[in-house]
Amino acid sequence: MLDTPIARIENLRVTFETKDGPVVGVEDVSFEVNPGETVCIVGESGSGKSVSSLSLMRLIEYGGGTIAGGRMLFDRREGGEVDLVQTEQGLMRTIRGNEIGMIFQEPMTALNPVFTVGRQLSEGLRVHRGMDKRQARARALELLKEVRIPEPERRLDQYPHELSGGMRQRVVIAMALACKPRLLIADEPTTALDVTIQAEILALMDRLKRDTGTAVIFITHDMAVVAQMADRVVVMFRGNKVEEGTVEQIFEAPQHDYTKALLAAVPKLGEMRGKAYPEPMKLVGADAQDIKPIEGSDEELLHVKGLTTRFAVKGGFFRRTVANVHAVEDLSFSLAKGRTLSLVGESGCGKSTAGRSILRLVEPMAGEVVLDGTDIIALDPGDLRKARVDMQMVFQDPFASLNPQMKLADQVAEPMRNYGLVSRSEMDDRVAMLFDRVELPRSFLRRFPHELSGGQRQRVAIARALALNPKLIVADEAVSALDVSVQAQVLNLMMELQAELGLSYLFISHDMAVVERVSHDVGVMYLGRIVERGPRAAVFENPQHPYTQALMKAVPVADPRRRKSEKDLNFKPIPSPIHPVGYEPGPSEYKEVDPGHFVLTSESGY
């Protein structure tokens, strides 16, 4: 290993011009990356971690930023060291993609929707490597095999929208690696992915780094991913580097207060062992109240039996139904008052559709849903509207679920206005009380959604869901888009409200560490069915179904001494949930392995 670092960033300063004058995106950041090393940059949204990486690619100018100071030295393969701050754009075009590769956060926006995957992969090879069409296509096929995409020959001629999120992200990685860059910048490359796909992509990047000696700058806010990947860690806060060290130093002996707070907010898989009930997290700097476990009651609130939801696939000249997507298949469970049942599984397993079917936002095909003695499925539209007072939903993306043109106070008051449950004078008091409940200042009442951060918007969505005093809240990936510390605060808030108001949650998530923290009971979904359900401790500590076991193995743990090896991460590809019109799957049959712990025995297919 050579002593010269591949890249050195010295005293970088980046500013953005706004109407109110310049805003500092990065104030003063210095670090270096050596060959074959992975440096993780961590911090919350707005800490300047993506700005640093876009500056290194000199893409920041296209986003309205200016490099106001500092040096960025990059050691080129041939031609020695250059200062990227001084380099003109013509030479930058040669370096970009050829010597520095970049994996962007959102694979759908990083790919061009009008070109096939094969064309996008071969473009860089033809520009930088001077290959002809046939050579470039052959190399593109090799790259898809390297990133382990199934049926690579077919994928070359497909368009990005025909691939799943995980496959698109692999194509983006293959594009970044096409020219064998010396430095690879990965900006939150696994944030939007499932546990199993994330695990595979991390293993893939680690293997490629070992094989090619590429240096990696890995930007993320997921501390478990850092523990799995990093050699060294740079912690950023408000545009400054506050701490740097090896991955063991940062996790085991953090020095800076901000690093300590960041690590305290990470739910770690396994820390709930031996605890019978969920309890809020102890956060650094929060009021040290006595944290009480949330016991809940034994009284049944929600009973779901045989719930089945399918979507028609239409085709042909007359748009007839040619097949069905079996999204939810014979789902049964019950939920008691004041308790949380989590549904976990990968994208496309049917967990969100299950949540929406229970509220009849999607019409189920069969099954019964009984909420507090009322059969929801049998209700006509008028009665269903009345029943919805008792059941509310918190969606994944708070920006999409709030109205951008309404003030927040009006949005939280809207459910009460629609149902006419409280008088006008009471309404203002109740809205202010709800804002206090979700710990938002009352000055926010007159603001609009775009004036809030993601975590604050999610609190408004929770306040709106609480407006009608519901008995059941369906939280669909309600914290997955939030930063670690904000996520911890919102989870604590949800748990405190549960303890206080006796709320029941149906918590839909793919984050196993969060699920372990909040759940009384867990149901693991695979291809529209629950393959295993039971008390949290039983499912997490004694998983019986092969799919649950594979899922548990894939979860990265926020501890650098417990890294996953590549052999832990071999998954079967998920079969298609689309079946021809006459296909009738068998019923779900379960075996009780312990009291209350059920495992699917019939045609689970895994």
From TrEMBL:
The region called Disordered is annotated at: 559-594
Record has Membrane as a keyword: yes
Q: Please provide the record's keywords in A-Z order.
A: ATP-binding, Cell membrane, Hydrolase, Membrane, Nucleotide-binding, Transport
Q: Name one GO biological process term.
A: transmembrane transport
Annotated ranges, domain ABC transporter = 7-263, 302-552
User: Where in or outside the cell?
Assistant: Cell inner membrane
This enzyme's EC code(s): 3.6.3.-
Q: What GO CC terms are in its UniProt record?
A: plasma membrane
Q: Which InterPro entries does the entry link to?
A: AAA+_ATPase, ABC_Ni/Peptide_Import, ABC_transporter-like_ATP-bd, ABC_transporter-like_CS, Oligopep_ABC_C, P-loop_NTPase
Regarding the membrane, this protein is recorded as: Peripheral membrane protein
List the molecular function annotations (GO) for this entry: ATP binding; ATP hydrolysis activity
Q: What class of enzyme is it?
A: hydrolase
Asked if the keyword Transmembrane helix belongs to this entry, the reply reads no
Report the PANTHER family cross-referenced here.
DIPEPTIDE TRANSPORT ATP-BINDING PROTEIN DPPD, OLIGOPEPTIDE TRANSPORT ATP-BINDING PROTEIN APPD
Q: Which NCBIfam families match?
A: PRK10419.1 (NF007739), PRK11308.1 (NF008453)
- What family is this protein classified in? Belongs to the ABC transporter superfamily.
Q: What is this protein called?
A: Glutathione import ATP-binding protein GsiA
The organism of origin for this protein: Roseovarius tolerans
